[in-house]
Amino acid sequence: MSTLPANVVRLPHTNQIDALLTIIRDKATARGDFIFHSDRIIRLLVEEGLNHLPVVDKTIITPTGNEFKGVGFKGKICGVSIMRAGEAMEQGLRECCRSVRIGKILIQRDEETAQPKLYYAKLPPDIESRYVLLLDPMLATGGSAIKAIEVLLSNGVAEEKILFLNLLAAPEGIIAVTSKFSKLKIITAFIDEGLDNKKYIVPGLGDFGDRYFTWP
Ligand code: PRP
Ligand code: URA
User: Fold this and answer.
1) In Å, what is the CA distance from 182 to each residue of 144, 177, 186?
2) So what's the ipTM on this one?
3) Is the pLDDT of residue 178 over 90?
4) The dihedral of CA 19, 24, 191, 149: what is its sign?
5) Domains in the chain, number
6) Nearest CA to ligand 1 atom 22
7) Which CATH number goes with the domain that contains 202?
8) Who lines ligand 1 at CB under 6 A?
9) What pLDDT is attached to residue 2?
10) pLDDT of residue 75
11) pLDDT digits over 26-53, tens only?
12) Any stretches that span the bilayer, and where are they (predicted)?
């Protein structure tokens, strides 16, 4: 994708991120290494996501007795993971935001048609008053993300308060989500070439959930 939609942020292509992504894309990478290096990218995504939260002026007194005019986060946040793969991103969020509330949405893609099916959603009761970090490592056709966003909106979350954190995206998924939702933000580590005939991201990394949770 040469031009990114205005509401899409891609992590900078540093040597570190390129090397981490190369490790997790490699089919020879064993599960332990896949988890370790995915977690490192997830941490970078969470940190970048937090950069996009609004702040308000806050003045504090330092131990030298001097005043410092700084800022503090403006609102409350929560995480929402799209199960199963999105659950892999919860720990990275907890490492940055201790005791953060986390909701779950269970959406599964049909293996034949790639159509998403919503099974279950359990969200913090006051979610409409929070910024939501929506967690899913893979954005392929965009079907699962769109369904999850619709669940958030129907629970009173304002679209501009949604930050979708994603590890690998296909242009098809980016276009599908941003053409429907122009006010939320997508923060992704990498945008790949496209989708294969089974709607897997190419070159991609395979099935993230399998590689993180059940790969040999
Ligand atoms: C994967 C992935 C996304 C979805 C992306 O989940 O984690 O949720 O596919 O594809 P889409 O953009 O075409 O909807 P999957 O349904 O395979 O379940 P899993 O999390 O259990 O692996
Ligand atoms: N889900 C995955 O885990 N990988 C893909 O490439 C597409 C959907």
Assistant:
1) 17, 8, 10
2) 0.97
3) yes
4) negative
5) 1
6) 209
7) 3.40.50.2020
8) 82, 84-85, 108-109, 114, 116, 136-145, 173, 199, 207-209
9) 80
10) 87
11) 999 999 999 999 999 999 999 999 999 9
12) none
Question: What whole-number distance in Å separates Cα of residue 76 and Cα of residue 143?
Answer: 28
Q: Tokens for 64?
A: 């030298």
Ligand 1 centre to CA of 56 (Å) is: 36
Distances (CA, A) of 198 to 68, 111, 113, 195, 207: 55, 8, 8, 8, 12
N- to C-terminal Cα distance for the chain? 34
How far is the C-alpha of 108 from the C-alpha of 215, rounded, in Å? Answer: 18
Backbone φ and ψ for 27, nearest 5 degrees, come out as -70, -15
Does residue 3 lie within any of the structural domains? no
- Look at 175 and 111; give whichever has higher pLDDT: 175
Residue 1 lies in a domain: no
Instruction: Write down how long the chain is.
Output: 216
Interatomic CA distance for residues 161 and 10, integer angstroms: 18
Nearest ligand to the C-alpha of residue 201? 2
| SS3 call for 67 | strand
Q: Which of 18, 126, 196, 210 is catalytic?
A: 210
pLDDT digits (tens, 9 = 90+) for 110-154: 988 989 999 999 999 999 999 999 999 999 999 999 999 999 999
Range of the domain at 17: 8-213
Task: Tell me how crowded residue 216 is: count the other CB atoms within 10 A of its CB.
Answer: 4
38, part of any domain = yes
The answer, yes or no, to whether residue 84 has pLDDT greater than 90, is: yes
Amino acid at the residue 17:
I
Q: What is the pLDDT of residue 174?
A: 98
